[in-house]
Amino acid sequence: MTSLPTPKLSIQHLSVRVPWHDNGWTGGLCTKPLNNSACLILKRIREEREDVLESQNSGKNICDIPPEEWPPCVPERSMFMAPFEYTRMVSHPYSKSSSTHKHILPTPYRHPPYSAAAVPFRWMRREFAWDIAKLHEIDVSQEREPTEPGWLEKSGWVQAGENQKALLDCFFSAIEPLKSLCFFYAKQTPLLDEGDWVLVGAGRVKSVGQPTEYNYDTKSSKNIRSFLWDVSIEHSIRPDLKDGFILPYHEILKIAETDSSIDTSNFVALIPEDRRSEFAYASEHVTHDGAIAALLSCKESLERANEILDKPLTGPLHWIDERLSELWKYRGAYPGIGAALSAFGINHGVMVAHHISSTLKENEDPWLVIDEIFKDPRNLSKNIAKEITPTLQSKWKNIKSERLALLKLLSRFEITNSQAKRFFVQEERGERGICCSDVDILSNPYFIYESDRFADTRNDSESSDPISLWTVDRGLCPPPIILNKHPIPDPSALEGPLDPRRVRSLTIFELEKNVMEGHTLLPRNHVIMSLRNLPIEPQCPVDGDLFDIIGDALLPEVIRERMADGTASLQLRRYKNTGELIRHEVLKRVKGKRFDITADWAKILEKSLESSSDTLEEEQAREEKSQALAEIAASRFSVLIGPAGTGKTTVLASLCSHPSISSGGILLLAPTGKARVRLGQKCGIQAKTIAQFLAPTGRYNGITGQYVMNEEKRFEGAKTVIIDESSMLTEEMLASVFNGLKGVERFILCGDPSQLPPIGAGRPFVDIVSQLTPEGIEGKKYRIGQGYAELTIQRRQIGENLGDIQLAKWFSSRLLAPGEDDIWSKITSGKSLDRIRCIQWDKPEELQSLLIQILVEEMKLSGPDDRNGFEQRNGGSEFNGNMYFRRGAGIHAEDWQILTPFRNVAIGSRGINRLVQKGFRQQVIDWARGHRKYGAKITKPMGIDEIVYGDKVINISNHPRKFVYPKEGALNYVANGEIGIVIGEYIPARNAKEEKPWRTKVEFSSQPGYDYSYSERDIGEDDALLELAYAITIHKAQGSEFDLTFLVIPGESQLMSRELLYTALTRQRKRIIILHQGPLQDLRNYTSAESSATASRITNLFVPPNILEERDPQGKKPSRYYEQRLIHRTARGIMVRSKSEVIIDDALFAAGVKAEYENEFLGGDGTLRLPDFTIQDDASGTMYLWEHLGMLGDPGYKRRWEETFDWYKNHGVKTLEDGGGERATLIITSDTPQGAIDAQAIQKIIKEILA
After folding, report:
1. Residue 612 — very low, low, confident or very high, per pLDDT cuts 50/70/90?
2. Do 557 and 608 contact (CB within 8 A), yes or no?
């Protein structure tokens, strides 16, 4: 059809997206399709998968079932390892809905054995296609595109068959059989819960098919022609793994089923972080750099897998080495010539570069040819010659040596045109905040990575990605066959793999990578071992001796610090700066001049507190709030801490009501939108999210999510600043807030340090609380100190039997009162509790049916098909038999919530959301798809979640939003984590013919009365701003509360932590349903500091880190780190809850007495207690139960102990002084009123036991 020859592109490689498949992609259906939620990331599978039918056909070969029962994963390339040929019928997407396409008939498409149908979607998108055609001079014309019907032109896809064929031919011209590699990848797998895309396998391309034209009805007069976009790619991968490989993920998952120490995420080969755009749009070209990086990622995965597999995979490793050698030859020394020439000013630099490469011999220097071209372009073809204008010739002739050297240096890196321009064009460099000169870059090419990692690239036309370290490193460290022929000139040349410039950049990379793990610095030996094990070539075998001599070369980006034991550590400069600012503000303010506020705080509190019983605990609760108020009012910096229900926001509201404080202006801030609303409502002052406050002055970048310090204008409108939910603050967030304020007299951080640490670097709130906590505070009646106020009495629960709060206490970092262990008896006995219900499940498929049943029971629905009842629970209102979601529905988003630690696995939020939506809202989805011919219309399903009218959704990115109604009073801003209900678009039947719904309108519970509009572009497949929110992750729920929560807890998981469970168990206002995998008592494994995510972070905000490293004796898990200031570890290596317990256990250990910590002691009625220590004296036949009491000054604590003491007496346990009981002897010790412990008394008791 095409009249001009197809341009031949330089050789490249191919990425092919496949869905996750639990049966190895070998031609059969999944063996457990309901457990495969990973494949639902693909829109077609999510929309079309029929769970019942797939369960019936599970494990069957597609040859054994009729094609009409084939699952939707088949056209998504789930059979690429099938050893047989099969044919499927493909219908044109518009043949049934458009009269202009009815002549296009279903067309057979043949799948050869071991093949995949590659679809280059990006090339077929109009927004890219015309630029691609122009770049490569493809015979494509917009004039060929059909204009009727009108909607076709707006579809976004290339429609003309001639254009489709030309684009497909050109795309696949870059794929050369036996030379090009094909990489199979999945956007989601069960091996890791994050959203990282994973390489599945790699092989060589054996053959490339031809585009297939659809069959037509020859009797039709219609002339629209069209091609299937699927082009068959036969690959070389076979079960013997001799010419390619499939990574052994299924084998690893099977091992992990019986070995909980296996962290499957450690064996994953991720797509190269700097080449994500090459693994997108189903199929895309992969550059030589991308192929090299992908193979190295696979190599690392295979080497790790070989450590646990019975049969090592040596063949694939050898195959990778052979392919790497070939790839370097294809790549050459100058893969970025096209980008460099474009940066120099040639409009079609890539086209010119392709012409040059076609004239070169192997490993020939292209710059000699380029120089000749600029001198005399007349020998070139007209299309090439016209690019070399006289102006450019003059520019080339007069280019300075440093500028030419920079251009040549950039050509050594496989980068895009915009990336090259960003560094070659000096003005572009300055515009993006890249502060380095030509000389700086030539002297240290790694500056390209270092300075670009935070550059503002939003205005770049091609790519907003920064240039990665690996792109630079490959250009500077090619193999000898390249480097010897094309040596890198001084001063850019490296002295070898251990060049200090390279070591510095690799160190920066390692420190940056660990920032997301929460660390603000690392022990130097950790960095050294990580660099030695990096999957790079050449390797970087650094050691301590090298770091000793190159220390100054690490400056200024990397700062040398010290650990508490004097050993070396390394820290990024920005965390040195943020730490210094936070430290200065906190310490100077705490020691600063205090305010003399005259106030009757008890009287002011009365206005905010509800009437309550006149008990000793109630009186003490009010008094501790009064004292807390006095302290935070008087101090220039303070922390207000306490668990949920202790009245922290009540205290803040009372503070804000004082005239001398309110008159100076008050700024209320919170990390999340919901916390912002709750704080503002309680205090009667409009609050802001931190991102919302900092964005106008550039201290928060909404694109990158980065918080920065700068010299922009500082806010001076408030004398008092309060931040709620402060446990969510990173060091950068807090430092940016300090940096953005001026004239503040009083700074208050409020929160619960037992909650999850922030997503990001540090744990500043916990570190500040630890710094300000007075010595011996646990023994004081009121926990008040300089800049420190702790609320301990959960007032709203006084006198109530609140098992949920009692259970949550076990996962906090606070001391437990005696008797708190009776909650384990209550929840395992099967007895009904008002606020808590526990249900066990064992397998994911069991949970799926169980969850629907529990939702029906707890939400008082008539059954699993009670759609109206379900929608009413989400704010729907019924009228004339129809359900409507009007403004006001948004507040019901907080009525109930499912929480899970996971996002992407079978029991993660994505899978549960689909389960709930399909179970209760399928009719609405069908309605939105247009299955109703008449009546009202609603917006079509949006995004891969198929969000429709009436759905519960969550916003997942901080961003300003102007599409809001009504305008007056609107915040025009939506924060990450805000939850709401879709209330539109709904077009009544009377208007349905004239109007077409096109947007999704959401009313958020945090902004009632306002609906925000989202378009289809806002809810895309990979970057959606909205997601379904019937289930959300526990992290997303932090800062929010719900009337009723359903908590899904898996068995042992690497993601579980003490703080995660504590946060989950404190989200409910009225009731929580815990659906736990395996025995409920297994949760006690997470009550120890050994499972603390907060204590495992390495920070030096106030003091050098005092780190305890625990290595896995089997070597299967990475080492865990614990900050010893935040844990209590005994000499025999167990984690306990207090310093006093450490002293007791150490004394027992020193005396040779074997004691069990918190071991179950069962009463005759089935109830239990967990005494601090259990000592079984086999010689005398005596069992000792040791209870240490730490807070007898607390009335509630004392009452709980009296109840526990009575329990012991009623179950055959008497004190040591009374001669012991028939079952056990009770030892009771206690702290002094000053919070100390009598060590001599402990020794005396131990001697008596031994005697």
Report:
1. low
2. no
Residue with tokens 């994963």, as numbered in its chain: 73
Query: CA nearest 40: which of 1055, 998, 1028?
Result: 1028
The amino acid present at 313, given as its one-letter code, is L
Question: CA 529 to CA 542: how far, in whole Å?
Answer: 8
Inter-residue contact 269 to 297 (CB < 8 Å): yes
What is the DSSP secondary-structure string of 858-914?
HTT-SSTT-HHHHHHHTT-EEETTEEE--TTGGGGGGSEEEEES-SSSTTSHHHHHH
pTM of the model: 0.92
Measured CA to CA, the distance from residue 984 to residue 1000 in angstroms comes to 6
Report H helices in 1118-1225. 1139-1150, 1195-1210
Using alpha carbons, list the distances in angstroms from residue 1 to 139, 161, 312, 433, 1185.
11, 8, 51, 49, 89
Cis amide leading into 966 (omega within 30): yes
Which range has highest mean pLDDT (243-252, 383-392, 800-809, 1176-1185)? 243-252
Cβ atoms 690, 708 nearer than 8 A? no
Q: Which two tokens stand for residue 671?
A: 């990390």
Which pLDDT score is estimated for 797?
A: 46
The answer to whether the CB of 969 falls within 8 A of the CB of 978 is no
Burial of 1218 by CB count in 10 Å (0-12 exposed, 13-18 middle, 19+ buried)?
A: exposed
Q: What is the pLDDT of residue 58?
A: 95
Residues in the chain: 1251
Look at residue 101 and tell me whether its pLDDT is greater than 80: yes
Instruction: List the beta bridge partners of residue 1123.
Output: 1107
Give the pLDDT of residue 1053: 84
Rounded-to-integer distance, Cα 585 and Cα 1163, Å:
53
Measured distance CA(81)–CA(783) in Å, rounded? 65
| Residue 245 · residue 298 · CB < 8 Å | yes
487-493: average pLDDT: 97
pLDDT at residue number 926: 93
Residue with tokens 């005697």: 1251
